[in-house]
Amino acid sequence: MPISLDRRSFLAGSAGFIALHPFSLQAASNQVHLRLMETTDLHVHVFPYDYYADKPRDTVGLARTASIVNDIRAEATNALLLDNGDFLQGNPMGDYIAYERGMREGDLHPVIAAMNTVGFDASTLGNHEFNYGLDFLMKSLAGAQFPVVCANIAKETGAGPRDDKTLLPPYVLMDRELTDGAGAKHAIKIGLIGFVPPQVMNWDRRHLEGNVQARDILQAARAYVPEMKEKGADIIIALSHSGIGAGQERDGMENASLVLAGVDGIDAIMTGHSHLVFPSSKYDGLDGIDVAKGTLQGKPATMGGYWGSHLGLIDLMLERDAGGWRVVGHAAEARPISKRNEDRSITALVESDAQVLASVAQQHEETLAYVRRAVGKTDAPLHSYFALVADDPSVQIVSIAQSWYIAQMLKGTKYEGLPILSAAAPFKAGGRGGPEYFTDVPKGDVAIKNVSDLYLYPNTARAVLVTGAQVKDWLERSAGMFNQVEPGKADQILLNPDFPSYNFDVMDGVRYQIDLSQPSKFSSKGVLQNPEANRIVNLTFNGAPIDPAAKFIIATNNYRAGGGGDFPGAMGDTIVFEGPDTNRDVIVRYIVEKGTISPRADANWSFAPLPGTSVLFDTGPKASDYAKDVQGVTLSAAGDGPDGFARFRIDL
Boundaries of each 5'-Nucleotidase C-terminal domain copy (predicted)? Predict the structure, then answer.
């Protein structure tokens, strides 16, 4: 039976002496303990630093992950350190190298320098490795002191995968000597094979079309794994830059790791791409998955979070008999570099490895200068002081960038040509964050770090396919932001304190009004409570009433598209595009391409008139600097609000 690592033993080892893993302690003369360590989705996060916010962050960084690698290696006599892809792009350091410094022949990419310092044994490609083009990718990989494999991307395809001319070696066979429980050394051939989602051909079409082709992950595995066995592989480890999705196989799966684990000949599987942790309760109760044992279809598996947040671990007890090496025991876990406390604060569990920090120290300083320097300009201020009561430029720029990106991504698909709407919400809009918790980017230069003020979360771009009726109900759900008001009554409190601003989606591409005299159709939690209510009135598209049966694409983020906030039309079953890029990256690219952005609120939404009625809402004191420029609403100062807020009156 699999033996789980004793956490107390590890902590004791960390406190000053080595605590061997139970497999190492129990290995007999014909048994070896092999420890597999995994990082995945590093996205150039070497320093524990958030470049967007321009401040340290204890939850990320290969330097932190690396600091426990030596201790973990010491717990087992034999160990391999593997990376599961998406290391080359994903934060401003990656963009700085790609767009500013460039990669010349012989240059060493900082994340590769850091990985060399930590001592990786192998890696595979992730989908983001292709974001800067093939030339940049190959120049970056040239500096790696470890093999990088990928079985399902080919420069030329043949009759089957084994006839392909792959971009990189599909697999590597590593001859190693492992020490058994009696101290004797044994030769073993370890096979490592890598996979990437075939959707890269859509996500990076501009770089890949005409240059490479992608194979189905399962098709490639079933071709190459037997070949690896033919060439003497004793054990085979799959580096699957693919999430843990459904157990039913279909062609071209993006999240294929669960099905991949069932391929005969694969002994263990590293997963990633989803930015999740395995084993974890996230996967409880799913067919084919045993969280307690850390297995997918009975095979040991792990997923080490993202940005260096965890180190994935698989322990294998291998036994040699007349038929060769076989796995007789296994355990899996994902070890974190930090923990979240009950008060939501973060405690770092490890310190950074000084050598890893030193390996990229210069590029870190260069990146800081890069994020603090302007990448574009705005000819109008970007603020969120009135984002909950009027069309707002800080939300609109996010919305415009999303539409711009999704239009590019849907080119060449069956959804090209459908009207694209865009939904975005104000994240920094006071509330529990206090009177200073607002976006406020002045007119003029826009630096990359300003984007974190516009978009707080590392969400990724998504598109959903909805009907006109669902567009209306999406907006009805959003309109729960407001209390119901009584017509003809003065100075009623407008905002519902139980409704978070990140669920107040404003939708560009349509025009509409919100009738505050109506009750909210949905509760603050998204539960249908007044089916006949119609707060959303005068909803039009292209100047005509919206057709309830018409089809629309809505550009949004992974949280909303996957059911976050319980919005009609966004419950995870309407997604037609899952972008590989964060919404922050999309905004940065949009600003860089445009040079100067001109955010202008066009008052595409407003409150329906209620003569003789006024409402009060609270915002930041600096709102008075911008009140005269707010479009579509009649504002006046109404004194001080509670807790340092400023109060404004709206005449409806």
Answer: 439-568
